[in-house]
Specification:
The chain has six helices and twelve strands. By secondary structure, the chain is an alpha+beta fold. The strands form two sheets. Strands 2, 3, 4, 5, 6, 9 and 10 form a seven-stranded antiparallel β-sheet that branches. It has a five-stranded antiparallel β-sheet with strand order 1-12-11-7-8. Strand 7 and strand 8 form a beta hairpin. It is globular and about 50 Å long. The termini are close together. 44% of the residues are buried.
Length: 243
C-alpha cells in the first residue's frame, strides 16, 4: 500500500513557480515535482508543463525505465516549445524530479536542485545529488556537504529543463526493490534549504502517518523561514506501508 501527501506553498513570493503532481496507474504510482525558473510568472508555466508531460508519459508507459527517460526527454521538448510560443521567454526553465513506484520496484530521476530523499525503516539511505555549483564543489572536495544550504552560489544551477541539450542532462537511479517501511520525500530547494536531513529523520521517527510527517516538517520550514524572504516551497511525502 502506498500512502502520500503533497504541499505547494507560495512563501513570500507573489507567484508560485513550483508544481507538484501524481498519477496512479493500476498498482503503479508516479510522483512529480518541478521548480520553475525565470521570474515574471513564466517559471510557473515551465514547471506546470513539465509535470503535465510527466503525468502523460507515466499514464502511457507505467513505471518502466523507458518511461523514466521519456518523462525527461518529452518534458524538455515541451518546455523548449513553450519558450518559442512565449516570445522573449528563453530564460523560462525548470527543475524536475520523478519517483516511479511499480509493483515490485522503485526508481527516481531528477534534473536541477529539487531533490528526492529515500529512507528505510526511518533511516536516511540517500538522496539525489543537485546539479548545482555548491554540489559540484562538494563532489570535488572544495566544501563540505553542510555548506550547501548557505553557499552564496546555491542558486546557480548547472543543469535544468529548458536549456538546449547535446546529450541528456537528467539522471535516474537504478531500480530498487519495493519494501514495506520505505519512505520518500520529493522537495524543492525552498523546502530542503530550511530543514536538515537530521530533522527530516527526527520527524519521520515521531510520525504515525505520512500526513503527520509532512505536516510537522512544513511547520518547521515555516518557522525557520519566518522573517525571511521565503522562496516557494513544495514537497511530496510517500510511505510504503504494505505490499
Amino acid at each position: 500500500m502506498v500512502e502520500y501527501k503533497s504541499i505547494s506553498r507560495i512563501g513570500s513570493r507573489t507567484i508560485n513557480e513550483d508544481c507538484v503532481g501524481m498519477h496512479q496507474k493500476g498498482e503503479e504510482y508516479g510522483f512529480f515535482l518541478a521548480d520553475g525558473l525565470g521570474g515574471h510568472g513564466k517559471g510557473d508555466l515551465a514547471s506546470q508543463e513539465a509535470v503535465k508531460q510527466a503525468i502523460l508519459e507515466f499514464e502511457e508507459g507505467g513505471s518502466t525505465e523507458e518511461t523514466m527517460q521519456k518523462i525527461f526527454e518529452q518534458a524538455q521538448e515541451k518546455v523548449l516549445e513553450l519558450q518559442r510560443q512565449e516570445q522573449n521567454c528563453y530564460g523560462m526553465k525548470t527543475t524536475l524530479t520523478a519517483l516511479l513506484i511499480g509493483e515490485k520496484s522503485v526508481q527516481c530521476g531528477h534534473i536541477g536542485d529539487s531533490r528526492v530523499y529515500w529512507f528505510w525503516h526511518k533511516k536516511l539511505m540517500g538522496r539525489t545529488l543537485d546539479h548545482s555549483v555548491p554540489q559540484m564543489l562538494v563532489n570535488i572536495g572544495e566544501i563540505d556537504e553542510d555548506e550547501i544550504r548557505n553557499h552564496p552560489d546555491r542558486n546557480r544551477l548547472l543543469r535544468v529543463m529548458g536549456s538546449e541539450w547535446d546529450t541528456p542532462q537528467y539522471q535516474y537511479s537504478e531500480k530498487i526493490p519495493l519494501k514495506r517501511g520505505q519512505a520518500f520525500l520529493l522537495c524543492s530547494d525552498g523546502f530542503w534549504e530550511l530543514i536538515t536531513e537530521k530533522m527530516m529523520v527526527r520527524f519521520l521517527r515521531r510520525a504515525d502517518s505520512v500526513d503527520e510527517w509532512l505536516d510537522t516538517m512544513m511547520e518547521y520550514v515555516e518557522e525557520k523561514g519566518r522573517e525571511k524572504n521565503m522562496d516557494n516551497y513544495s514537497a511530496i511525502a510517500v510511505w510504503i506501508t504494505g505490499r
